[in-house]
Amino acid sequence: MKRRGIYPGSFDPPTYGHIDIVRRSLEIVDEVVVAVVYNPQKTNYLFTPEERLDMFREEFTEVGDRVIYDSFYGLLVDYVEKMQASIVIRGLRAASDFEYEFQMALMNRHMKPNIDTLFLATGAAHFYTASRLVKEIASFDGSVQGLVPAHVERRLREKLAATS
Ligand code: PNS
């Protein structure tokens, strides 16, 4: 039986921090499902779920089918169950992430006691990287080199140019 971990998030856009978490998760589980949350009520995403998944796809071409790309709408725990998994993977950066993440993990476990969250400490180089900040920096034409791959930066610039 393959051990499958679900890595959920907004990933708007994916950063090197997210990519690092997927790579390291592959050392722990057999399959990682990159699961982009889709919320039709939330309209302030820059990228569509499919665009966000495409950016991940570009990073993991050599990994083959050990990375699965998907999006979901609704409760994470329901999605995890639907995907026949029991592990949620989340990256932890600073202490400021902790309270939110802890609350979510416990709430998810309250709803489905068989589902557990595996936290990976973010790579030291990505400690301060956040999609929100990357978008803000790029929107003011600042450099996001070292925070996101070049193809993500290119898509960011194209998207921002198209939406401004
Ligand atoms: O990258 P993000 O935006 O911090 O990811 C948050 C995410 C997608 C993990 C969280 O918002 C989520 O699980 N959303 C699905 C709805 C849900 O299950 N809500 C209850 C959480 S206790």
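^ 4'-phosphopantetheine complex. The domain at 4-128 is CATH 3.40.50.620 (Rossmann fold). The longest helix spans residues 95-111.
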